[in-house]
Write a structure and sequence with these properties.
- The chain has 62 residues and is mainly alpha-helical.
- Helix content is 68%, strand content 0%.
- Helix 1 crosses helix 3.
- The model has no long low-confidence stretch (mean pLDDT 91).
Length: 62
Amino acid sequence: MIPQHLCVLRLRSLIATIMRERKLKAAMNRLEELEDYLLNDIGIGRCDIENIVRVGRRGFTK
């Protein structure tokens, strides 16, 4: 049997993961709504959106 405090920690971790994913998806959706010329102006290709949102520009290599 799993102690109750571990169940609570797992539940909190799951909720935090779900919330983080929702925020990342919202950021990706906002960028995907931009026109290509605007993405190009800020140095992002459409195919790079997910990687840049998840990793950040410093972790991104072309």
